[in-house]
Amino acid sequence: MNIILSTTVSNSATDVIEAAQQLAGFEIAVYQRSGSDVQPFGFNFFATSPSGGATWDGQYLRIGFEKKGVDPRVHVDLEWDQTSQTWSGTFERGAFRSQAIALKRPAGHKNSRLIGTWFERDGLMNNCLHIAEAQDGTFTGWGDDIQIPDRMRYAYGLRPPDHVTEHYGEIAKVKVTESDRIEVELRAYTPTCCSHSFTATISHDGNSLVGEWLAGGNQAPRAARWRRVQADSCLAELHSGK
């Protein structure tokens, strides 16, 4: 289950980590993997907006969707435990059914130096990356868009918006091709254009990913340099002023 959050922050904020973030969107993608990937039509997207198909009251997440065409039946009734950081309850998608499932963030063996949180300071979007290892030894990841208030520049005469939008948790494809080299496709499963891919090698000190963004839809090739963040959130990197 992939949970994607969107929040807004006042464009006048001077410190993103301490600024109040207002929830703007709550999207849930329920999916099934085939090996280390997800096959076409392997995702079902829901939202907590009116007619979005999901409800969330701060503790319970519920989804009810009957089979339509190629889309399977989806029924989810999960409770969030803040202390253990675990979802537990009923989870059904197509042929997969569990009346007592527990969902946690990936937490594998952490043998790879590539695992962790990374921030690309020069990026305006797709600039925070989380890499994790699943229990089966495959790698996974998710990306955030951390927009810094007042950083965007507008043409003369255009009034900047009152708020900027932060975007958290969109699942990514992660492939470790060598012990020190990685290929990442951010927004890999978004239903709209476009995914963004880069390849990089980890530095000798383990604190940087150095490579390039690849040419693609809505993306020009350019250098990529990610810095390791000593926290679970890239907001800490902004707060540190590094």
Based on CA atoms alone, the radius of gyration comes out at 19 Å
What's the architecture of the largest domain in CATH terms? Answer: Beta Barrel
Fill in the CATH topology of the largest domain: Lipocalin
Oligomerization:
single chain
The CATH class of the largest domain:
Mainly Beta
How many distinct domains?
2
Give the proportion of residues in helices.
under 10%
Total of helices: 1
The proportion of strand residues reads over 45%
First-residue to last-residue Cα separation? 33 Å
H/E order of the elements? EEEEEEEEEEEEEEEEH
Shape: globular
Structural class comes to: mainly beta
How are the elements arranged and paired?
Blueprint: E1 2-10, E2 22-31, E3 43-47, E4 54-56, E5 60-65, E6 74-81, E7 86-93, E8 96-103, E9 116-119, E10 128-133, E11 139-145, E12 163-178, E13 181-186, E14 196-202, E15 208-213, E16 222-229, H1 235-240
Antiparallel strand pairs: 1-2, 1-12, 2-3, 4-5, 5-6, 6-7, 7-8, 9-10, 9-16, 10-11, 11-12, 12-13, 13-14, 14-15, 15-16
Keywords:
2 domains, eight-stranded antiparallel beta barrel, globular
